Amino acid sequence: MLFTAVPRPPARIIPGAVHLPGFLSEEEQRKLVQQARQLARKVAGTPVAMRRPKVGKGQMDAWLLSLGWFWASNPYRMLQEVDGYPVPPIPENFQGIADAVMEQARAIDPLVGPTPRIETALVNFYPPGAGMGLHVDAEETSENAVVSLSFGQDTVFRIEGHDVLLMSGDAVVFGGPARRAKHGVLGAREGTSDLLDGRLNITMRQMDAR
């Protein structure tokens, strides 16, 4: 019996939010994961190292590496240095990736809006089973879209009550009317990837409205 993959065409999730399955090739995925590892190694042991932030009285399951601006919690704020250590800069290739993602996303739903000027990014690592609860990205004053890339294990992306299966190489954009939408991810599904034992997510965004 011949089994074929279930089609996963690009699609609008809600107005302003678009899912682009398989946006990155396997080779592109490997290179970006390696780049993320190198970025994390460069700042290991410093105040700007990849970490599990404390949120309220608890601690996140995911490990976060801040680029461009440092996402600090308790209280939430954005910093460009921590204890005298500068936040690692945005890699040069990130803007080109965002440009390409946004071009495809606008072809599906023009409501995603203009391409963000990538000024900050989060590299999030989710161990198997780890996810992130529903939240709103509100630290930036810019209303331009958030560009999100997935690597490794499958997860379910939830935005305003709509669930989408994310697989390695997928991209998601949410901008326009969805820019401040409540969203999160369920647990990374163990055994669904040969690339990573866990899930890596890179989110790119613009900080200022100017």
TrEMBL record:
Top enzyme category: oxidoreductase
UniProt keyword annotations, A-Z: Dioxygenase, Iron, Metal-binding, Oxidoreductase
One Gene Ontology cellular component annotation held by this UniProt entry: cytoplasm
EC assignment: 1.14.11.33
Name of the protein: Alkylated DNA repair protein (DNA oxidative demethylase)
Stored InterPro entries: Alkb, AlkB-like, AlkB-like_sf, Oxoglu/Fe-dep_dioxygenase_dom
Binding site for Fe cation: H135, D137, H183
Coiled coil regions, renumbered to chain: none
Domain of life: Bacteria
Species this protein is from: Corynebacterium mucifaciens
